[in-house]
């Protein structure tokens, strides 16, 4: 049978096909994902960030636990710090050993041991958060590869875990400050 010219080919023309992305688009998407993750670790876009939550916390209220509250500010701050450190070290150190659960993730005392302990905990949390951001922003960090010494975790999962935990516990600190009457409105 002769070809009439009316028959349409099922073959797509060469070039860009739906669903196929170029290398430049993938690199741009990767860079954007990394920027979003880094911001998520320390952003105040959907909730209050660490800096605003901690700023100006009265020293007299750091170990004060209002009626009905399970923890005081010192306990929550240390819990945030220890967990952030543990997640970061798990991501970058194959020899890291996590603290025992749950006691290893909480301070041994409900009261800061001295006046400098609060500032040291704040500084350490900031440093670990910044290190996590740098890990995520580094294009050599494969966000999707399984962490070799883990049980299926990826850097992406750990970053999302850290951001989620931090948001939850920062919310607890805000509530605690409001209960203590020292939240700056």
Describe what this molecule looks like in 3D.
The protein has 185 residues and is mainly α. The protein has five helices and no strands. The chain has one domain: Four Helix Bundle (Hemerythrin (Met), subunit A). It is globular and about 55 Å long. The relative contact order is 0.17. The N terminus is likely disordered. Helix 3 packs antiparallel against helix 5. It is 51% helix and 0% strand.
Strand content: under 5%
In the CATH hierarchy, the architecture is Up-down Bundle
Low-confidence stretches: 1-5, 11-17
Summed over residues and divided by their number, the pLDDT gives a mean of: 88
Report the top-level CATH class.
Mainly Alpha
Order of helices and strands: HHHHH
- How many β-strands, per DSSP? 0
**C-alpha Rg (nearest Å):** 24 Å
The CATH topology is what? Four Helix Bundle (Hemerythrin (Met), subunit A)
- Number of continuous helical runs: 5
CATH homologous superfamily assignment: dinb family like domain
Structural class of the helices, strands and pairings? mainly alpha
> Rough shape?
globular
Distance between the termini: 83 Å
Instruction: Supply the number of structural domains.
Output: 1
Major beta-sheet overview: none
Helix content: 40-55%
């Amino acid at each position: 049978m002769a070809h009439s010219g009316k028959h349409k080919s099922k073959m797509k023309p060469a070039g860009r096909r739906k669903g196929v992305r170029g290398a430049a688009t993938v690199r741009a998407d990767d860079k954007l994902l990394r920027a979003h993750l880094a911001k998520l670790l320390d952003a105040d876009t959907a909730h209050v960030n660490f800096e605003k939550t901690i700023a100006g916390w009265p020293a007299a209220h750091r170990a004060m636990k209002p009626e009905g509250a399970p923890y005081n500010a010192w306990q929550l701050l240390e819990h945030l710090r220890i967990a952030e450190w543990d997640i970061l070290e798990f991501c970058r150190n194959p020899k890291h050993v996590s603290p025992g659960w749950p006691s290893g993730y909480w301070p041994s005392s409900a009261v800061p041991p001295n006046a400098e302990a609060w500032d040291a905990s704040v500084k350490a949390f900031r440093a670990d958060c910044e290190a996590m951001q740098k890990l995520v922003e580094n294009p050599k960090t494969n966000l999707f590869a399984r962490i070799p010494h883990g049980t299926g975790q990826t850097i992406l999962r750990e970053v999302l875990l850290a951001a989620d935990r931090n948001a939850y516990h920062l919310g607890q600190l805000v509530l605690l400050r409001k209960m203590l009457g020292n939240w700056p409105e």
